[in-house]
Design brief:
448 residues, 19 helices, three-stranded antiparallel sheet, alpha+beta
Length: 448
């Protein structure tokens, strides 16, 4: 019998669910203040087990270091299934998950990422040339445009052309649709996922997705008949990758992994960059310190200079601490009873290492609501205190690439443009699909 150590929300499950979906930041802030860094909630339906959120480092460590067979992880990610597909890395468990992860790992780590430096900087330079002088623009939209082009070039290997332009337009349209708070709520309630024709919400989504899939499968088919050995994009590498048995990925597996990388690696990084611009340009001391270090790189800093700059790295870390790319690490469904802080959690218990709760824990981060990059220069936090890309065997496979991309895009822009924040109301964190973005998109202006 489980020893109920965690306090839980007392309101009806439906209200708990709606409260979390409507404003997840307010939800976690409110109940962290009331119950502490670990608490439970019933957010998966009236007859579903409670979800246990953990922000204390000791509890997070227990979960991240537990043997993989102790949990089932793909079962609770149903919200992603409609667009990611059954073969997506986030949907798999056990040997199937290990196989896909091994095939996907090489492009996103080590020397391989050096191939992407120049491309990321060049695409950024192309986009910022379109910014008019002395006219407000949304930095979040600019970041979304840049990161989408990066994904299409680096992951899909698409060069400028009809297919690339069409795919970019279709993806942008689909993201605008599904990131609408009311529309995205459909992903949390499967009974509402009904195809009532092209004018119905779910029917519209399905038809947009099919159009995107058709282009992706065309690209896969074409590339299977080409020599990809000299190409550096992720799709080319995956087409030639084989597992220990010598088997490569099927078209379905390739499609699902590409879509997962696209949707989980595009808007998320764009949102983090938007926050980064807001925090830096609204914090004069941070801006001055960052500019001083960047100017110290010389007139023509190289991509590697941005990657290695300590203060820029700390700014990225602090940005991801305040509003991480995802508020939670992947939920775990207990398969074998596990003990955490003296309490036993039997099979079917749902455990969630909560990134947001851990990152706003007073005992770890003093003044946790304040933007203070220096905290990362003066202290080394453990992987259970600070884990913006999750942890354990389910850590985000593109975490290192995301940090890499943030530094290169931000460094390129800040060295090429003179920008200022436009007068606007208080910026608040709001939900946009699975990400938390700054309200209003952060309006900025180029100074001529």
């Amino acid at each position: 019998m489980m020893n109920q150590r965690l306090q839980g929300l007392e309101k009806p499950p439906l209200l708990q669910t709606l409260e979390l979906i409507a404003n997840p930041i307010r939800f976690f802030d409110k109940y962290q203040k009331r119950y502490g860094n670990n608490f439970s909630a019933k957010i998966l339906g009236l007859n579903s087990p409670p979800v246990f959120f953990f922000g204390e480092p000791e509890a997070v460590e227990t979960i991240f270091t537990a043997p993989s067979h102790q949990f089932q992880l793909g079962k609770i990610t149903h919200v992603f299934r409609p667009f990611a597909g059954d073969q997506s890395l986030i949907m798999l468990d056990g040997q199937a998950h290990q196989r896909q992860r091994k095939l996907l790992m090489p492009p996103f780590h080590g020397k391989r990422m050096h191939f992407y430096q120049q491309v990321i900087c060049e695409l950024t330079e192309e986009e910022i040339k379109k910014i008019p002088n002395n006219q407000p623009f949304s930095i979040r939209q600019l970041m979304a445009d840049i990161t989408l082009k990066v994904i299409l070039r680096v992951v899909f290997g698409l060069k400028p052309g009809k297919r690339s332009d069409k795919l970019q337009q279709l993806i942008s349209n689909l993201l605008e649709t599904i990131n609408n708070p009311l529309y995205s709520s459909l992903f949390f309630f499967p009974p509402l996922q009904i195809d009532g024709g092209k004018y119905s919400p779910w029917g519209h989504f399905i038809r947009q997705q099919r159009a995107i899939d058709a282009l992706i499968y065309q690209e896969i088919e074409q590339r299977r008949h080409q020599d990809n050995s000299q190409q550096t994009d992720v799709l080319s590498l995956l087409l030639s990758a084989t597992d220990e048995a010598g088997n490569g990925m099927s078209d379905q597996e390739l499609r699902d992994q590409l879509i997962t990388l696209l949707f989980l690696g595009h808007e998320t990084t764009a949102s983090s960059l938007a926050w980064m611009f807001y925090w830096v340009y609204s914090s004069p001391q941070v801006w001055q310190e960052l500019m001083s270090q960047i100017q110290g790189l010389g007139k023509s800093p190289q991509p590697d200079d941005f990657i290695q700059l300590p203060y820029l790295h700390a700014v990225c870390q602090e940005t991801l601490r305040l509003y991480p790319i995802a508020l939670i690490s992947q939920p775990r469904v207990v398969q074998e009873t596990i003990s955490i802080d003296g309490a036993s959690y039997p099979p079917d218990s749902i455990l969630v290492p909560c990134i947001y709760l851990a990152h706003h824990r007073d005992a770890t981060f003093s003044n946790p609501k304040q933007f203070q990059p220096e905290r990362f220069l003066n202290h080394q936090f453990s992987a259970y205190q600070y884990f913006p890309f999750g942890g354990g065997s389910r850590a985000c496979i593109g975490g290192a690439f995301s940090m890499y991309e943030m530094k290169l895009i931000f460094g390129t822009i800040i060295t090429n443009l003179s920008l200022k924040l436009v007068e606007q109301g208080k910026i608040k964190p709001v939900r946009r699909g699975i990400t938390i973005v700054p309200s209003g998109g952060v309006k900025m202006e180029q100074i001529s």
